């Protein structure tokens, strides 16, 4: 597709990774907005573009405006934004498309289903991009834009995206907390956390071949009451972890 | 080290993977025991050796006896086993070394910290092997044996191994259940589970660079009450998952 001009509202991890991905594909990052001078300056420099910390100074001639900001400020920013003819998309998993409906004419959602961290570059090629737009024409256009950076572009309703976002909390945020609990237990036993890396890597790669239910191992799925009781006892000094252990074990058995 | 003779008590996933790993390094698998004719026959064939389904028929001249069986039958098998001068080791994370103390002279534990599945070959080279033995001499010998198949051999007490095993339940079994819940939610929303693979892969590889606490993202760690409430509401038809969501979110906030 021809080179387009993209403006970013936000300069955090998501905005940074997306801006760099589009820039790499030859598109022009036209402007960066962030309320933080430092963040917007850093990203603007990396994208060889200009920035502003005043939302009303956003130029109105970009082709696409990508809003990658915290959910809590998204609505306010949309309302403060000048009317611009380009396509406005937010990147929030749990926010509906209609946030834009009284503010702009062309709008949609562009939700990359991934966890973004500072200083970790993301491979976009296989990254699922879930998109939605307010008209057929905008859908087609957004799809074309998205395919620039990923092979995996999926149309999805705001309702589906809610479920998607929730599933990501389990698959990513809660999984990471399981790692955090493992680290806590290993630290208490004076064992370096890095020794659990191979187990974690195998657990996550296993599901490429097996459905999670088939891949389930451990005392709960075996109904190994003796081991479960030992573990619960070992968690006596960590009551919340103990309750988490009990509930997850129960649910594993329910899933069978 | 010189070629040794190893007998396996058990013919399941762990026994299979270990037997193949030792065979590959040139050691001789002397005999396989399993109560199941089919399992023992299959593994014996793959190891080019003989098998028995009668524990009393185990030959007494192997150098090492590796017990890789379910925790629930381990003690009975140890008691039924003929006295043999070789080194006897079990592979159970949550079982103490002293199971052997009234049965054999030379014994220990050989605990591979990994999840083993049928038909998935494990790379042993970096796999942490936690070992323990009843004498200094047996420790040294067991360490030498273990180093044949892995660079990562760690001495660890039965007490430490308990914590290790428990940490593995969180890092592997419970993590896999988080995937199972994600799958359930995606299926309900008519979204293919495979679209969550990149998120899962990134989540697990992130902790090679960041401690889990630093890597934590999501509504809980942001204290994003609005999103948490939306998610809890969306889980109304799944009360156990809802409670798991609530507790893990609470614990994420406690870890900060």
Walkthrough of the structure:
- The structure is a homodimer of 256-residue chains.
- With 256 residues, chain A is α/β, with parallel strands linked by helices.
- The first copy, chain A, has two domains: 5-156, Rossmann fold (3-Layer(aba) Sandwich), CATH 3.40.50; 161-255, ProC-like, C-terminal domain (N-(1-d-carboxylethyl)-l-norvaline Dehydrogenase, domain 2).
- In chain A, 45% of the residues lie in helices and 14% in strands.
- Chain A contains nine helices and eight strands.
- Chain A has helices at residues 13-24, 37-46, 71-80, 136-147, 158-188, 197-206, 212-215, 225-234, 239-255; strands at residues 5-9, 28-33, 50-52, 64-67, 87-90, 107-112, 129-133, 153-155.
- In chain A, strands 3-2-1-4-5-6-7-8 form an eight-stranded mixed beta sheet, covered by helices on one side.
- In chain A, helix 3 links the parallel strand 4 and strand 5.
- Chain A is elongated and about 65 Å long.
- The mean pLDDT of chain A is 96.
- Chains A and B meet through helix 5, helix 6, helix 7, helix 8 and helix 9 of A and helix 5, helix 6, helix 7, helix 8 and helix 9 of B.
**CATH topology (level 3) name of the largest domain in chain A:** Rossmann fold
Shape of chain A: elongated
Number of domains of chain A: 2
pLDDT under 50 segments of chain A (min length 5)?
Answer: none
Most extensive interface, chain pair and sizes: A-B, 94 and 95 residues
CATH class of the largest domain in chain A: Alpha Beta
In the CATH classification, which architecture of the largest domain in chain A applies? 3-Layer(aba) Sandwich
Q: Measure the end-to-end span of chain A.
A: 49 Å
Radius of gyration of chain A: 22 Å
Strand content of chain A: 5-15%
The protein's oligomeric status is homodimer
Could you give the order of strands across the largest sheet of chain A? Answer: 3-2-1-4-5-6-7-8
Number of helices of chain A: 9
* Mean pLDDT metric of chain A: 96
Spell out the CATH superfamily of the largest domain in chain A.
Answer: NAD(P)-binding Rossmann-like Domain
**What is the number of E strands of chain A?**
8
Q: Profile the largest sheet of chain A.
A: 8 strands, mixed
Helix content of chain A: 40-55%
- Taken in chain order, the helices and strands of chain A follow as EHEHEEHEEEHEHHHHH
């Amino acid at each position: 597709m021809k080179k387009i001009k993209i403006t970013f509202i936000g300069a955090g991890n998501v905005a940074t990774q997306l801006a760099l991905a589009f820039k790499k594909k030859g598109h022009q990052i036209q402007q960066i907005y962030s309320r933080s001078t430092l963040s917007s300056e850093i990203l603007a420099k990396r994208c060889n573009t200009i920035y502003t910390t005043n939302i009303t100074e956003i130029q109105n001639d970009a082709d696409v405006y990508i809003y990658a900001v915290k959910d809590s400020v998204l609505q306010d920013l949309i309302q403060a934004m000048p009317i611009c003819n380009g396509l406005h998309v937010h990147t929030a998993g749990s926010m509906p498309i209609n946030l834009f409906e009284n503010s702009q004419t062309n709008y949609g959602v562009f939700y990359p289903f991934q966890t973004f961290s500072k200083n970790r570059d993301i491979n976009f090629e296989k990254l699922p991009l879930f998109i939605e737009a307010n008209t057929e024409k905008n859908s087609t256009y957004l799809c074309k834009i998205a395919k620039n950076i990923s092979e995996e572009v999926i149309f999805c309703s705001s309702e589906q995206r809610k479920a998607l976002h929730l599933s990501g909390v389990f698959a990513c945020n809660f999984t990471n907390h399981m790692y955090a609990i493992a680290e806590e237990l290993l630290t208490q036993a004076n064992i370096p956390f890095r020794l659990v890396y191979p187990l974690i890597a195998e657990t996550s790669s296993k599901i490429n071949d097996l459905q999670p239910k088939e891949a389930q191992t451990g005392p709960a799925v075996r109904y190994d009451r003796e081991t479960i009781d030992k573990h619960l006892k070992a968690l006596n000094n960590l009551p919340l972890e103990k309750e988490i252990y009990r509930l997850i074990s129960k649910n594993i058995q329910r899933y069978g």
